Input
Amino acid sequence: MSRNKTNEKRTKKKKKMKFWKKFLLFILVILIGLIGLFGYKVHKNGGGLSGMLATVAGHDENTKKQLGEFKCLLLGISTDQENVDLTDTIIVASYNPNTQKATLLSIPRDTYTGKDPSKATAYQKINAMYSRKHRPDETLEAVNEITGLNIKYYAVIKTEALIKMVDVIGGITFNVPINMDYDDPSQDLHIHLKAGEQQLDGDKAEQVVRFRHNNNGTSYPEEYGDNDIGRMRTQREFILQVIKQTAVPSNIFKLGEILDVAKQYVETNIDFSVAKDYIPYIVEFNTENLLTETLPGAPSNKNAAGTWVYIHNKKETQSLIEKLFYDRDKTEEELEKEANTNDTTNTNNSNTNSTTNTSTSNTASNKANLKIEVLNGSGESKNLQTVVSDLKQAGYKVTKTGTTNSTAKTTIIDKKETNSSILRHIKDVLGVGTIENSETNSSNMDLVIVIGKDYK
Output
């Protein structure tokens, strides 16, 4: 082989090496750029595990701001007795990703759903509604009627789901409040637990949440809340621990198993596209921000059949709902402003010998008097009808409707300094939307709602 040919080969080899070096350098620069961009987006999304999950989900720094409070009705169904399916657990659960606050409101299973308590029957207890037709939407409608909320989602959780879920995550550490000793052969239910903190597997978890009283008739102590009240308190505290001990980074690797359990034993109308937007933020939820309560009321058997039912107190319920779902998200300045407004209103009413109303009653009255215009910019004609219907069901009257140019985001435009509690309630009814103040009061409308493409 001649020297010239050898030199040519060396030259070609050097050129190839230079090419690959440049190519690899180019790829490295691209990778560093992508990693840097990803890191920047994670930082913009709040950093940490939450920011990483939000970035992977395709969120930006504005996504969380657009998310409203998520509310869902949880129904725990006992499946021990064939074709009975009574609802042992009824809880309204809410979570706000922006305030990182959550609520669990227990609805006693004996809550009466009829119109005349003097004619109450066991068939009209709220825990019997699901067993009639296996339609969770009927129980959801009853809860909305009782609470005045506009909950859209439900999750029916069968006994097997609790057992398998607890086993999947390796058990739950829980402080059992009292010694529990109960047997019901008809349901093959046997509860035998000692008081104190311990590791519960799925079987023992079921025992804890279903316990109401012992074989000898004793129950939780009065200061804890006996029978159903005590059971509901234990259920809420157990759910609190499940949330706390499940929402940890190590359980991300068990997500597939958790989803398999949910598919098999949970019935829900929650769309994954809705749920996935909340997942990145709930992983950093602090359980100290969880507020738990029970629907106000009292048991009664003053009816022809002598049936024990739970009669909820409407006035106290309104006050509690305001506290749990609206006042918690207000700033101190807003609460102080509303208190001053109410004091002024009450003083004026006293001077004119008119009836003084509570802030809750005033809010209800103002709702009916609002002039609301709804404009559809979503491109879907059915959305206009749905929004109008939902607002009407929530106690609002839509004065005017129409269409507008295509809009990405749903907006609630306040034109007359509407009560902030009402604005938040309307956003809650819509399930989406941002609240804006209009720069002009020339419109004869109090509120203009523009439905965007984000409305679902």
Summary: Residues 32-43, 349-365 have pLDDT under 50 and may be disordered. The chain has 15 helices and 17 strands. Residues 72 and 153 are 5 Å apart (CA to CA).
